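Q: Structure for this?
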Amino acid sequence: MTRYIIRRLLQGIPLLFIISLVLFVLMMNMGDPVASMGGRRVTRSSDYQRLKRQLGLDKPIYTQYLYWLVGNDWTKVDMDGDGGAETPGIRHGVLRGDFGTSLVNRGTPVLQVISERLPNTLILMGASEIIIILGSLLVGVYSALRQYSRMDNLITTISFIGYSMPIFFIALILMTIFAVLFKRWGLPYLPTVGMFDPQVGKTIGQVLLHMILPVLSMSIISFASYSRYIRSTMLEVLGQDYIRTARSKGLPSRTVVYVHALKNASLPIVTVVGLDLPLLLGGAVVTERIFAWPGMGRLFLDYVGRSDTPVVMGILMLIAVAVVVFQIITDIVYAWLDPRIRYN
Amino acid sequence: MDVIAKPLLEVSNLVTRFHTPEGTVYAVNGISFEVREGETLAVVGESGCGKSVSMLSILKLIPSPPGEIAGGTAMYHDQDLLKKTEIEMEAIRGKEISMIFQDPMTSLNPVLTIGRQITESLRTHTGMDQKTAERRAVELLNMVGISDGLLHLGDYPHQFSGGMRQRVMIAMTLACNPNLLIADEPTTALDVTIQAQIVELVTKIRKQVGMAVIWITHDLGVVAGIADRVIVMYAGYIVEEADVDALYENPLHPYTSALLGALPRVDRRRDRRLKSIAGAPPSLLMEPKGCPFVRRCEYTIERCTVENPSLTAVGPSHTIACWVNIRTGASR
Amino acid sequence: MSGKPIPEKVIAMLTADELETPPLSLGQLTWRRFRRHKMALTGGVVLIMLVLYAFGGALFLSEKYANYNDTQLRLAGPTLAHPFGTDSIGRDILARTIYGGQISLLIGLFAVTIETGLGILIGAIAGYFGGLVDNLLMRFTEAMLNIPEIFLLIVMAKFFGGKLPELHVLGRVYSGSLIVIIVIIGLTSWMYLARIVRAEFLSLKANEFVLAARATGTSNTEIIFRHILPNSIAPIVVTATLGVANAILAEAYISFLGLGVQPPTATWGNMLDGANQYLESAPWLWFFPGLLILLTVLSINYLGDGLRDALDPRGRAI
């Protein structure tokens, strides 16, 4: 088991490097950050050159990548344009946690900018994930047990619709029902903007209230597809020999289904959760936009719009790291849960 | 076999069918047999003859849909098992009548410890607490030849070999001292040497606890070593039933005779080819007209093609379903 | 289950009626099969209807009409004259969904063509040649898979967005961003197919017909395209079909964020741009395009599901 963990971790490292390379190449071609320095146009060519040197953009791309990765504080850069490097660099490089500074928020370290928004996105994602997993287990098992029944068919149809919907459509419909219509009908209604009501302040109750619609919007799609998936793994498991053995021992139906069957059927979901993270993140971007939720997704949109390359790059890299790490974690959890792998 | 005691299990005219998109499969077509206390009944036949399905039907373990137990009774302790509800059957299964299955690789739950899989029977049927159940589990493992049972309670099935797993299965099924053990080809998936061990084990245990055994197999070699009586099935029908010695010495149904003839024997001349039975079993999608074995039989007469023979006695506790006397060639 | 035992002799002579299965069980099974296929068929029919709507509708309402805006009528609710209402500058939404539909559907189609081409190319090369080539290509594929599609789309759309000039095709004007969107969706979705194609190639390449082809000196390219590829059509077709749904959704997402196809070209997605503002006041702005997207994706999903069942050689029961 330990060997497996180590192996997975080691596999992750080259992957992260390749990702960083891909992202870096992408970002470097995404435009000239100097031209629209966080929104302010630079017109004087001497300023332009100076800024280029400051940002290290006058160097060839592999040098830029190197500096980005490991910083340039171990070497000298040419700041005054005379062709000779004399000033020591100040960047520490990504590997030491320095993602550079934001162009929009002059001088603020990228990580700081991101970390202000990151927890907000994590809240949404965490809550969504819980709802998705618990909900789909319930619905999936229920469907499997009542295979071919009307309820099962209904659930299958709703599931299909659920994961065919664009997330913003779901969000807009939910907003219309629970915010607009409820309000019109005099029912208690849900808020649709932001994380809390500024007049009330950032309390837990406020945040929870404001979370309901965004989390629902984000969860429905995955919830629908996981339910179908669990239904099919459950059905497959229920047809296995060891279930027949369990029944032949006279165990109550409940035990056979919820212990013998479910334990086996729910294993694959761990892997699915890992693979699904990129989609959930993508959903977060759109959801945060609609509900004006101050999270990382919204930050990304804003800062792409303002060509703040360091921040954008930072977010992309962090996301990639998160995805890779999360997948490694889910793989390890799976290995731990499945006795066939754990005790080998 | 002395006193004609009341049979432990008496099955009459069991009919089981499966409804598939291709049509109805007539898996079991009205079979009747009985098992007395303490005796071992072997059920012999090739794959698809309905031997497993019959036993699963008795325990009502046939998935329905698509299966359907269409007729018959299975009397156990004066009650018809086929009429019982699922809850009532749960009290019978594992406690009064147990079953072990063919493939030990897939018949044990891979994510539960073997300790758990043994103790849950005990706790369900006898209300034991965990500690007592575990002690009993260790005893059982000992009985099946797995020493150091305590160490193994926390192990998982994949950590055992095939033979060991089958022993675990046996321990599991014996947990609540059932009166009847149904063994569905328990040694087919095992090595020959292990086979012998398992057969020996079951024989020993059933003598110890006085349990009746129904042993399903297609291997006539195994039958000789364990059975008291034998029934031979073909295409969902019973075609011959006899005490084991009588069967081997004097098989009277063409199918049985052919099966025995096909057995490789140590004393056979080496240069003779093994006799096999030509042809294949009939499709179960249709009810056969006449005797189901007619196409492959060497002794057919006109009547065989139109009328399905019913079981008739041809000796003390020896019945066959055949129109022909294969010793003389005359019709019965 | 009857109470009376049935004598064996009788069984052989039972008539067809008496042996007839209770309608429920057999019917249930058959119905379920039909139902499965029925949904796929329904999906196909709905899809055809949507295509007719988008392309056939153009015969009834001209593009000029779609672009015609009467600011007096802005944000008017559904009426007989404008069954889907009017948008923020007074254009008829029904007409816009017709023309928008054409673009959305075409984007789906073309994007899938690109991603299928890429996916097959990369998957085939990786699977066929194996070794280092396979390793490198698969690492790259994995890397791309780990970056959420939306983020890549946003970045690429932002950069390439304004770069291409307007196109004049068949007498109509299209925003250059259209091509951009098609290309970037294609460039970010090929990975799934690449993995599938690679898996197919890995398993097929050991087959005898490949060895035979090699022995007779067939070139690698020919083996790949003429021999192995045709044998792996099934999963490619299924993935491509489902890919169209994904592409339409991707376009919708990116256009909703304002970075997709730019005006004046309409798509279902960009009709939803800024729909928040009109949440209460003019729900018809986003409802109809959204509904059309849903119907399209839904029917493609059903169709793809049916195809998968039909083409899956392993024939899983469920």
